[in-house]
Amino acid sequence: MIIGTAGHIDHGKTTLIHALTGVDTDRLPEEKRRGITIELGFAYLPSSDGRVLGFVDVPGHEKFVSTMTAGASGIEQAVLVIAADDGIMPQTREHLGILSFMAVKGLTIALTKIDRVEPELITARCLEIQAWLAQTAYAKAAIFPVAAMTGSGIPALRQHLLALPESITTAASQGVRFAFDRCFILTGQGVTVSGLLHTGQLQVGDLLKLSPLGLTVRIRSIHAQNRAVQTTSAGSRCGLVLVGVEKDQIERGQWLLANHLPAPCERFDALLTLAQDTAHRWREGLQVMVHHGAARCPARLILLEDTAWQPGTSGLVQCNLSEPLPIFWHDRIVLRDMSGQHTLAGGLVLDVMPPLRGRKKPERQAILQALTAAQPEQALLQLLRLATLPLSLQAWALQMNYPLAHLLAELQAQTPDIQIMDQHGQAWCLLPELAVQLHEQLQAHLDYFHQQQADEPGISCERLRRMALPNASPDLFSCLVEYWLQQGILVQTGSFLHAPGHVLSLTLTEQQLWEQLLPILQAGRFDPPWVRELAEQLQQPESLIRQVLCKQTRRGEVHQIVHDLFYAPIAIQALAAIVCAQAQPLLNVVNFRNQIGIGRKRAIQILEFFDRVGLTRRIVGEGAQGKRRDERLLRNPQLFSNN
Ligand SMILES: Nc1nc2c(ncn2[C@@H]2O[C@H](COP(=O)(O)OP(=O)(O)OP(=O)(O)O)[C@@H](O)[C@H]2O)c(=O)[nH]1
Ligand SMILES: [Mg+2]
């Protein structure tokens, strides 16, 4: 377990860590000369049961609050150091605020330098500290009066820290997120970074993504507490020697991420809690410095709520970062002013893919409120209750950094009637109420369409989407169509979608004529007669022949190649099979014509028909030796295979 420190300058953090562990964490010459901590320091305390406590020493100087913030990121427990002679000072307050913004769970108070004050003052300080803590989230924090120089009180504090319980998390099953605060060249080894593994498990040889750069790096070796190890898991601090990156490409504040995790984001919505003592005026467009892990980035704020924005209150905002950061759902951020003098607020990240439109609408605020739920499945369940469209579980699993299977299992355990539509691993999910509502919506639009266009056999998928559910993405809609087809709510004939009861029927005369036409077209195979020839052969008006064939085209019974030229399905299937066999993956027009044995002009007309319906796509351009290229690429080989 890692324990952070906090506290005003010179209150004795470094001396206390030395007394607890025997390690002097102020190792830089400048730190020695000035007698203050500038960079983060680390020390380890092994316990008799084999566990190791890691301490992060942070600077107390007001100029280095951002370094302290980096040190407080991702830790569970902290020791707030308060010198008995000084008492509560400005950075005591500011650091405690940062610990609570970072959601550090447990706090212990070390009242140091008690050798410098009278015993009455120690009691008075304890009372003073208790009264102050009572107004914060750490009212129950234990206070240990100590003198680091003499060792008085140190054993009791050490024992208390070693006995702190480690919380049980699911972090090990999540994707790797490793934040580093130091990078250097380790002699004889190479580029090395050291930091905290927030989630996941690391193993020598793993390939990770360096974020936000996007480079892939390999872990050559892992070093924890001065020895090489093969693996390490969430919650531990370690050093990693990397392959595949130069020293000048890495800097403190970057992350190493599991390869499947999403790209960094530039915009996110968050719930802010304003610092107790901030006098800042909160307004739309306010520029602030966002601290995330060991990274800092300027951002512009959009206030999503009409609240008072008073000290200590909370409100929803959108942060627009000047550079992308690898932020995830429920990450903690700290907001400071641009000059780096004041801590303004802390934030809980709610959505790293906020919609561009309607960001201040009440519906959106309800969604963000739902996303404040502590557990991912609780948040998703509430989102499902608010949803007007199926939810992409895949997208949420990524921004929450939870395994999809884990989320799915939790959701199904809580709501057994949840419906999952799985297409290409997308896993869209919805509650039965929404399924009914979407079905009604679909039916109303289909009924209206069939009423208005009684002569049409149905509607294309894209047109139906724009009509019935314009807010659904084409991917989601095609998944819904699949689902409705399976349920028999919707029927597909050729490329047309229609209501189950809808049939475009022929009159008796038309039906009789069709029964004569089909065998002629089938016999014509790759070169069937034109409408004019059919009219002559059957002694019928051309207009009637055309009318029947057009109607049957719409019903998917025959295919129209060009005006007045129709092919029987059997011929089209045979032609499509030739196309599929020849396209490797490109199809050459000349070869196609030679094989079917008809004129070049007709061969092209047939291929243009296949382009139109989506079997092939035409590719024109400059070929080898300056020859003009005219070829086809196969797009959807299944199109005519099961008709
Ligand atoms: N008498 C006495 N002096 C102490 C005690 N703890 C620390 N000091 C002295 O206080 C001074 C500051 O101690 P540090 O441990 O460097 O304080 P710090 O909190 O780490 O300071 P920064 O890192 O700069 O914020 C040093 O001169 C220490 O010797 C203590 O318990 N008793
Ligand atoms: Mg120090």
From TrEMBL:
- Which InterPro entries does the record match to this protein? Beta-barrel_SelB, EF-Tu_GTPase, EFTu-like_2, Elong_fac_SelB-wing-hlx_typ-2, G_TR_CS, P-loop_NTPase, SelB_WHD4, T_Tr_GTP-bd_dom
Give me any GO biological process, just one: selenocysteine incorporation
Q: Which key words tag this protein in UniProt? A: Cytoplasm, Elongation factor, GTP-binding, Nucleotide-binding, Protein biosynthesis
The protein in question is named Selenocysteine-specific elongation factor
Supply the Pfam families for this chain.
Beta-barrel_SelB, GTP_EFTU, GTP_EFTU_D2, WHD_2nd_SelB, WHD_2nd_SelB_bact, WHD_3rd_SelB
Q: In the UniProt record, does the keyword Endoplasmic reticulum occur?
A: no
- The protein's predominant localisation is cytoplasm
Location within or outside the cell: Cytoplasm
**Residue ranges annotated for the Tr-type G domain, each copy included:** 1-169
GO MF term set = GTP binding; GTPase activity; RNA binding; translation elongation factor activity
GO cellular component annotations, sorted alphabetically?
cytoplasm
Do the record's keywords include Iron-sulfur? no
Q: What does this protein do?
A: Translation factor necessary for the incorporation of selenocysteine into proteins. It probably replaces EF-Tu for the insertion of selenocysteine directed by the UGA codon. SelB binds GTP and GDP.
